[in-house]
Design goal:
The protein has two domains: 22-265, Phosphoenolpyruvate-binding domains (TIM Barrel); 269-339, no CATH class. The strands form two sheets. The protein has an eight-stranded parallel β-barrel with strand order 1-2-3-4-5-6-7-8, surrounded by five helices. A two-stranded antiparallel ribbon has the order 9-10. The chain is α/β, with parallel strands linked by helices. Helix content is 49%, strand content 12%.
Length: 340
């Protein structure tokens, strides 16, 4: 039987990047329900995650009531794929512990992850991770929930490599708006919109440091919001640059109009998929020894690249040839992934 790429190319230490490429945020009840409906209707699996927002979605003083609604949505039938997370309040918020307890008690078994905003530094995040782990254990959950964290403060950016390396962290996101606000007007408003967020040196530096730290630690870097949602070309261009130029594997959406442009931008194109498939099939036939493709040497390093590309194509719902699905994404591949 041919050796699967996961067996041939990756060791047991390899961390798999299995998250959907889009993370869609909603905090108001009608929009949260619409987000869940869109996730269920778009495909037979989750092509994007839904993050229900407590930090910005709850009215002042109504945090527990909003958390109860979110827990109901997470644990209900609308969470078809189990790919719904929640952005909670910052650790310093007076309702953090109460909201966390409510979520874990009522919906912990269905939560995909928790997003922690306003992380100040490594020590604070370690404390939050410990609190979440204790809560999961106390409620009999099989494992601590994966945690995503927002890097939007000077302290968190300064320690981003240590933060990315923490066990329990699955993904880091860049909090563009709060990061710019923390510069007290030194970064102009153009640094938050359009092409400006890809050209202002301080913003670009932050994005690159977050992406580099995540890749070094085997975590998923998630690109920040684009506030323009009426013009799909704006978000499509931002998503393309985030993926192709800055190395991001995921991106936030804040409006349904942004979903498909983001998914498309993070998807390989048909020519890339065809090339990856040709190279991987030839490599598999050669028992993963070096091969040549159109006069160019291919070896294990390039095989890994093309495997990651093919995985991303499958994860974004791209049509793959039957041969690719049988060879690489049938049950044998799933079992190999579980062993790793």
């Amino acid at each position: 039987m041919p050796i699967h790429p996961l067996q041939a190319l990756f060791g047991a230490h390899e961390r798999r990047h299995g998250l959907p490429v889009c993370d869609h945020y909603a905090g108001v009840e009608p929009r949260m329900r619409k987000a869940l409906a869109l996730q269920a209707e778009m495909a037979d699996r989750a092509l994007f995650d839904v993050t229900l927002d407590l930090e910005d979605g709850a009215a002042l003083g109504g945090e527990l009531e909003h958390a109860a609604l979110v827990a109901e949505l997470v644990s209900g039938a609308g969470n078809r794929f189990g790919r719904v997370g929640v952005r909670v309040h910052p650790l310093q918020h007076p309702r953090f512990a109460d909201v966390l307890q409510l979520l874990l008690e009522r919906a912990g078994h269905r939560l995909a992850y928790l997003m922690l905003p306003k992380v100040a530094d490594t020590a604070e995040l370690q404390a939050a991770l410990a609190t979440i782990a204790r809560g999961c254990t106390a409620r009999g959950l099989a494992r601590p929930l994966p945690v995503h964290a927002l890097i939007e403060t000077h302290g968190a950016l300064r320690e981003v490599a240590a933060i990315a390396a923490l066990p329990g962290i699955e993904s880091l996101s860049f909090g563009l708006m709060d990061f710019v606000a923390a510069h007290h007007g030194a970064i102009p408003a153009t640094g938050m919109a359009g092409s400006g967020q890809f050209t202002h040196p301080l913003v670009l530096r932050a994005k690159l440091e977050i992406a580099a730290a995540c890749h070094a630690a085997g975590k998923v870097p998630s690109h920040c919001v684009v506030t323009e949602f009426k013009d799909p070309n704006v978000v499509a261009e931002a998503a393309r640059r985030a993926a192709r130029e800055l190395g991001y594997l995921r991106m936030w959406s804040i409006h349904p109009n942004q979903l498909q442009p983001i998914i498309d931008a993070f998807s390989p194109d048909a020519a890339e998929i065809d090339t990856a498939l040709d190279i991987l099939l030839a490599a598999q036939a050669a028992d993963w020894a070096p091969t040549a493709h159109h006069g160019v040497l291919q070896d294990r390093a390039s095989y890994r690249y093309h495997w990651h590309l093919l995985e991303r194509a499958e994860r974004t719902g791209q049509p793959l040839p039957a041969q690719a699905r049988v060879r690489f994404f049938a049950m044998a591949g799933e079992e190999a992934a579980e062993r790793l």
